Amino acid sequence: MLTWFRKYSSILRASIITALEYKANSVVGLFAILTGLFIEYLIWSMIYTSEGEAYTIDGWTFNRLIAYIFLSMIIGQLKSSWVTSHEMIMQIRQGFMNQYIVKPLSFFSYHFMNFIGTNILYYIPYTILILITPIIFKDLIFINFIQIPFFILAVIMSIYLSYSIYFFMVCFAFWFGEVRALLAAYNISMFVLAGQIIPLDFFPEYYVNFINYTPIPYLIKFPVDIAMSLEVNLYQWVSLMVMGILWCIIMRLLSGLVYSIGIRRYEAYGS
User: Fold this and answer.
1) Pairwise CA distance, residues 119 & 123, whole Å
2) Which one of 74, 182, 193, 235 has the lowest number of neighbouring Cβ atoms within 10 Å?
3) C-beta of residue 156 within 8 angstroms of C-beta of residue 123
């Protein structure tokens, strides 16, 4: 374990140093979040204003909905592995996998540390935004201190689970070469289907019941639900946390299996 930490912590440090050379990226990312939120604010403001002050949608007031979108968009950015996935795909396509075969280096762990390191500058402004949400949305977010540690754990789980799903899809590049269209389709669908731009409560009951048997709710909905819960429900949170961890394990094992088959194919054909 100590050897693993030393090996991959050096990769993490190198990624952070690289990220510090592109400080403007964090500003652009923050601007994208605020722009997206402003657009959604205008759209939902027109809908709610046209119906009157007391109008709600499935029990959602305007302020509660905006608070949800605010948090969900931040978490959506934190968990996105699009850039790292592109780098992994290019390494597979261009035949740069030998270093992971010759050296005792995990393709999964290497790029996960690289993903965390290169995104470190995004985490700082997003963390600040999350910290000020209780001030902006008073009595709607983090009304109890115990919600904060559970929220942090849920976000960490979301990041790892999301990365594992991306990695699973990336591994198909061993067979198909170009899988960025698959990742793009996944990204676009998750904006809606994972509840990033509208709450899952707005979806039909049959759809919600279906995705409860998938890892999708643990990407966005679970962390946001903890932050916006009006009462503490430790039993439910711990139960869902355990289910989320199980999904992390399942996706890690599944992606590892696909990678193992793919890398054997790579070794057999040389690229």
Assistant:
1) 7
2) 235
3) no
Ramachandran region of residue 103, left (φ > 0), alpha (ψ -120 to 50) or beta?
A: beta
Q: What angle do CA 112, 14, 151 make, to 5 degrees?
A: 45
User: Would you say 26 and 121 are in contact if contact means Cβ atoms under 8 Å apart?
Assistant: yes
Name the 3-class secondary structure at 268.
helix
Other CB atoms within a 10 A radius of the CB of residue 210 amount to 12
pLDDT digits (tens, 9 = 90+) for 159-181: 999 999 999 999 998 888 788 88
List, in sequence order, the alpha helices (H) in the chain: 2-20, 24-51, 62-79, 82-93, 98-102, 107-118, 120-136, 147-170, 173-176, 180-193, 205-211, 221-228, 234-269
Question: Taken in order 59, 244, 153, 240, is the CA torsion positive or negative?
Answer: positive
Token pair of 85 as six digits: 């996935």
Q: Cα angle at 240 between 210 and 189, to 5 degrees?
A: 40
Q: Decide if pLDDT at 193 tops 80.
A: yes
């990220």: which residue's tokens?
19
- What does the DSSP assignment read for 68-115? HHHHHHHHHHHH--HHHHHHHHHHHHTT--HHHHHSS--HHHHHHHHH
Radius of gyration of the chain (CA): 20
Residues 50-86 pLDDT 10s: 766 567 777 788 888 888 988 888 888 888 776 778 8
Q: Any idea what DSSP says for residue 55?
A: -
The predicted-structure confidence for 93-107, as pLDDT tens digits, reads as follows 877 777 777 777 788
229 secondary structure, DSSP code: -
Contacts of 88 (CB under 8 A, 6+ apart): 107, 111, 167, 170, 173
Q: Which residues contact 101 (CB under 8 A, 6 or more apart)?
A: 263, 267
